[in-house]
Amino acid sequence: MPPNIVFLLLDAARADHFSCYGHENSTTPFIDSLAADGVRYSRTFSNSIFSLPSYGSIFSGEYPSEHGAVDWSQRIDENTLVSNLNDAGYATRAVSTHLVSDQFGIGEAFDEVDMVSVGSRDLVFEDDPVTEKMSEYGNKEGWDSEREKYTYFLRLLLRHPSYKSIVNGGAQLYRKKRRDWGWWDDDGGEQAIERAKSVVRDTSEPFFLFLNFVETHDPYRPPRDYIRRFLPDDVSFDEIKAALEYSSVRATLGLDEISPARRDILKGLYDAEIAYVDDLIRSFYEFLERDGSAENTVFVIISDHGDFFGEHGLWGHQGRVYNEVCHVPLVINYPWETGRTETGVAELKQLCQHLTDLGNGQQTELDPRGEALVEYYGLDTQLSFVPWEEYPNVDQAEWGAYECALVTDGTKLLWNAVSGVELYDMVSDEAETEDIADDNRERVEQLQTRITELVGTPADNHDRYRRTDADRSFDFEGETGADVQDRLRELGYME
């Protein structure tokens, strides 16, 4: 029988913050053990630097310029991976807190998708008109202050008195106070693991199970027990809360400054979130062992992109396609003995064909192609607002340009539609500190030719996309659309 496939994605978790990728902190002891028994791909790259186009490449097997889901108004045409596994006789299930919905074309192919509701959508009573109107207004207009939000709630409650609204409002106020006091709930990871266990119990084999975790995406609010493992005792909780009050977009654009001390706090919280998810994954794997499923299960662990912490003057995951946001972990633990590190260059879109091959009964391991292509269409594509309208002094030509990178075993070329090329030595300069393009024009031209063969030139891709820019609209309709908006707002993609 073909193996079960468990596919776990940690959102925004960059490779060099996993201990099995050399991080100084012990963030991933359990994932390390899976890597030791499986295959750790040391040089894997995402095909974009934020979630939607990266997911699109994973599930379609195409580059972002091919599948087209390069901003929040777009969707992929087909989830090729899950469709292929359906055809191979798999029961396909997803347990997700983010993105795996019909809204973006990813969820439709699954037999079942269980969306874990967290944050403002995690209600005691679902059928509450006041809370729904609050969500609709917030998604449409936004809130200028907490006072405005509470005043609007009280006005609605006077017009539509309901014990359900009082209970929901009180529950959300309680959650907010807990967050203010530092008793942070996770972002759905614990719920997702429990529901995944139920899926395994209720699903016939072979099954394909996809889970994603947004704990590792900012804002980083790990459980208290994990914070002190990565932050010194002399950092107060007031300092921790203050460190979280930042905008990665404004910091990237040079409009806000983040001090080194604040950066160190953010990195500690990030490590704590990774360690927390590592423990969640451990608990799920131990469940599979007790259930008897683990011995015939391929366990895949990846991230869709990383995060900047001030490197190259950038924050979050926007702006440029440097390694901090596109070098991602890939660990595959197969049911047969492996135990090795693969050093060839791989890219996430390869997983579509590889997992299809496993589903069709091939006992095979992912073979790195020796090159990886990363595409990005500009800062505004990952936001629901236009940054050069919100921030008048921001240069649209600079921040709205298409950029791609081609990574090979020895070099990496960045090619920007506006600013031109940069070339880096991937053997001696993985931090991309010294641009060697001027001294290696022949290599630059070789890589430009290869990029053009794969996806065309940056100038053409930029012009093609911007010609249709005026037609873009972020049309999130219905209950699912409201959930999507709330989640994107929590993750910083909407105002």
Q: Tell me the CATH architecture of the largest domain.
A: 3-Layer(aba) Sandwich
Helix proportion: 40-55%
Count of helices? 19
> What is the 3D shape?
globular
Q: Tell me the quaternary state.
A: single chain
CATH class of the largest domain: Alpha Beta
Record field, number of beta strands: 15
CATH superfamily of the largest domain: Alkaline Phosphatase, subunit A
Radius of gyration: 22 Å
- Secondary-structure class: alpha/beta
The largest sheet, given as strand count, sense and whether it forms a barrel, is: 9 strands, mixed
Low-confidence stretches: 476-481
Question: What is the CATH topology descriptor of the largest domain?
Answer: Alkaline Phosphatase, subunit A
Number of domains: 2
Please, could you describe this protein's structure?
- Strands 1, 2, 3, 4, 5, 6, 9, 10 and 11 form a 9-stranded mixed sheet that branches. This protein has a 4-stranded antiparallel sheet with strand order 12-13-14-15. Strands 7-8 form a two-stranded antiparallel sheet.
- Helix 4 (80-87) packs parallel to helix 14 (350-359) and helix 8 (189-202) runs parallel beside helix 12 (260-291).
- It folds into 2 domains: 4-118 and 185-370, Alkaline Phosphatase, subunit A (3-Layer(aba) Sandwich); 129-180, no CATH class.
- A hairpin with a 3-residue loop joins strand 14 and strand 15.
- The longest helix has 32 residues, at 260-291.
- The protein contains 19 helices and 15 strands.
- The protein has helices at residues 29-37, 51-60, 64-67, 80-87, 129-141, 146-159, 163-180, 189-202, 224-230, 237-244, 248-252, 260-291, 323-326, 350-359, 387-390, 396-399, 441-455, 458-467, 478-490; strands at residues 4-10, 39-45, 91-96, 112-115, 207-213, 297-303, 308-309, 315-316, 327-328, 330-333, 340-347, 371-376, 403-408, 411-416, 420-425.
- With 495 residues, the chain is of the alpha/beta class.
